[in-house]
Structure formats: structure tokens, C-alpha cells
Design a protein that fits this description.
Helix content is 41%, strand content 19%. It is α/β, with parallel strands linked by helices. The strands form 2 sheets. The protein has a 7-stranded mixed sheet with strand order 3-2-1-4-5-10-11, with helices on both faces. It is elongated, with a radius of gyration of 22 Å. The structure holds 6-O-phosphono-beta-D-fructofuranose (F6P).
Length: 325
């Protein structure tokens, strides 16, 4: 069997680990694995090369993606089907493994199935916002990266008390990542794009933490439209100095955690087995904490909002949105 891996959209820690494990699974069964450099745009340009376990091994513990990605929607172009089929025929490819986020995995596997190109998707994004899976590859590493930074912030916060610390995570226009980080780090408050906040309870929450414990920590997702204003206004609202940190893209490019490496290995083996078994379309999802093959696409999977109960709890709110502590 000859299969091809490609990445569409943002990279995520664990993608390279999955490349390595996929190439190993293929080698075990005498299969050949190819990689398209630069997603579908790269594939259509002919940027395809053999990917052996030996070539993938040095990258297995590194963030980013050895096979570069692309956000270009080339498959929506008129002659995309013919071009894609011609490229795959040139290399005698029998199936694709597609690494991508919500947008890529909702729309592309059904399209490829319609074009009779077997495709297995692997949900990869630090945002953890793919409907139909409990966890995406890269999310755990991105949380761990944030904890590493927060631990450093806490050390200096303890050494020099009397300040409020704000931390901005990535997450696009969703708050799953920021909420998980705020929960795991025990933040005093969290702001997400999905939920409204009130400056009165926010200021009170931060002031109280800073005066009783010496410092306060507010985690915000990058999608919160007023985040710069919040940082600028905190001293005025609370009378306490503020120190702001943005994780930026370093959060996305960090090394894969143990959880993501184990998940990558499991997902890669499942993807290979699915193509070998003749599956035409599927996505490797996490259900009940384990990776499993979901046959068909995730197109109809309902998207749930970040856990509102947890959001209220972290912010010390009653369920009616008022301050509860
Ligand atoms: O891949 C998801 C993500 O990292 C988001 O968290 C972030 O908003 C976005 O991608 C950044 O995209 P880009 O690398 O194109 O700036």
C-alpha cells in the first residue's frame, strides 16, 4: 500500500510524532509512505517525497510540522478534483492521511470521499475545538507550555508581591484552551470569547486575590475582543499594578507532551490500519479518553461551548453570572 500524509491549517505539537509512528506502522507491513510539503497546495504543485521512519525519527519529539502546511483552499477550485487525482496517480497513492483542524476535517474528508480518494483524518490543533472528538492532538502540549510560563510568573509574583498578572493564550476565536489552562493553573479569573464578563466582578475578584494572597492571575483567550482594554484598565479598576504576558505562537510550536506523543502513536496506528482495512473515509477521534476510528465524516457533529459551569466556578460566579464568593 502507498499512502500520503499532508497537513492542512495550523500545525500542532505531536504531528511530527504521528508522522514517525505512521511511517513505522507502514514499514512493518511493507507499505510506502509519502509526504506532501505544504498541504494540498504543495501536493498539487508536486511537492511530494518519500517519508521513511529513519527520516521522520529526528523530528518525532519536535513541535511544528516537518511537512509544511497551508491554509490555501485549493480544493474548492474548479479543476481541483482532476488535478488531485492526476497527482495521486503519478505516485500511485492509494490513500491519504489528513492532519487538520475543525475546518479541514469537517469539509475535506466528505469531498475526498465523493472524489473516491480514501482519506483518514487526524484532528490536530492546540485550540481543542474540533466537534466530535474529546481531544485534539497538540492541545495537551499547549496547556503544558502555558503551565511552564505560569510557574515562572508565580515565582516572581511571590518574590515581589502586589501585582496582578494577565496571561493571553492562543485559541483563535474559541476559549477551550484558555479555560483548560486557567483551570489547571488555578487562575483567579478567566475570560473567553464565548461568554460576557462584567468589569465589576472581575475587578473585585482580582483585587481580592491580590490583597489576600499577594498576587492574582487572570487568563484570557486571544479571541476576547476587549483584552487590551482589560489589561489597560486593571490598575484603574483595582488600584493595583498589572503585568501582561502573551504566549503567542511559541505556545503552538512547543515540544509534544507525553500525552500528545502517546496519542499521536495511537492515532497514527489506527489511521494506517483503517486505510489497510479499506476504509474509504474516517476520522481518528478521542472518545472516553481513547483514540478510536469514527467512520465517515465529522460534518454533522454538534459543537458544544466551553464548560460554562467551570467558567463560573473559576470566576467565583453563581450560576446567574453574579459574584458568588
Ligand atoms: O492553529 C490554531 C491557531 O494556533 C490559533 O490558536 C491561532 O489563533 C491561529 O492558529 C493563528 O494562526 P496563524 O498561524 O495563521 O497566525
Amino acid at each position: 500500500m502507498k499512502t500520503l500524509m499532508l497537513v492542512s491549517g495550523g500545525d500542532a505539537p505531536g504531528i511530527n510524532t504521528a508522522f514517525y509512528h505512521y511511517a513505522r506502522a507502514a514499514a512493518r507491513y511493507g507499505g510506502r509512505v509519502y509526504g506532501a510539503r505544504g498541504g494540498f497546495a504543495g501536493l498539487l504543485d508536486g511537492a511530494v517525497s518519500l517519508l521513511t521512519p529513519e527520516a521522520a525519527a529526528p523530528w518525532a519529539g519536535v513541535g511544528g510540522s516537518l511537512l509544511e502546511s497551508s491554509r490555501e483552499p485549493v480544493l474548492s477550485k474548479q479543476d481541483a478534483e482532476q488535478q488531485l487525482k492526476a497527482r495521486l496517480a503519478e505516485w500511485d497513492i492509494n490513500g491519504l492521511v489528513l492532519f487538520g483542524g475543525d475546518g479541514s476535517l469537517r469539509h475535506l474528508p466528505p469531498l475526498l470521499e465523493a472524489w473516491e480518494i480514501p482519506c483518514i483524518g487526524i484532528p490536530t490543533t492546540i485550540d481543542n475545538d474540533v466537534a466530535g472528538t474529546e481531544q485534539t492532538l497538540g492541545f495537551d502540549s499547549a496547556c503544558n507550555y502555558a503551565y511552564h510560563v505560569i510557574d515562572g510568573m508565580r515565582a516572581t509574583a511571590h518574590a515581589l508581591p502586589g501585582r496582578i498578572f494577565t496571561l493571553e493564550t492562543l485559541g483563535g476565536d474559541t476559549g477551550y484552551l484558555a479555560l483548560a489552562v486557567a483551570d489547571g493553573a488555578g487562575a483567579d479569573a478567566v475570560l473567553l470569547p464565548e461568554y460576557e464578563y462584567d468589569e465589576n466582578w472581575l475587578a473585585e475578584r482580582l483585587r481580592e486575590a491580590a490583597t489576600t494572597r499577594g498576587h492574582a492571575l487572570l487568563v484570557m483567550s486571544e479571541g476576547v475582543k476587549t483584552k487590551e482594554a482589560v489589561v489597560a484598565n486593571i490598575p484603574q479598576w483595582t488600584g493595583i499594578r498589572v503585568r501582561d504576558t502573551r504566549l503567542g505562537h511559541a505556545q503552538r510550536g512547543g515540544a509534544p507532551s507525553h500525552r500528545d506523543r502517546a496519542l499521536a502513536a495511537e492515532m497514527a496506528r489506527i489511521a494506517y490500519a483503517a486505510l489497510r482495512d479499506g476504509t474509504r473515509a474516517g476520522v481518528v477521534v478521542v472518545r472516553g479518553g481513547r483514540a478510536a476510528l469514527h467512520e465517515g465524516s465529522l460534518a454533522g457533529a454538534p459543537q458544544s461551548a466551553p464548560d460554562r459551569v467551570l467558567y463560573d466556578f473559576i470566576n467565583g460566579l453563581n450560576t446567574d453570572g453574579r459574584s458568588g464568593d
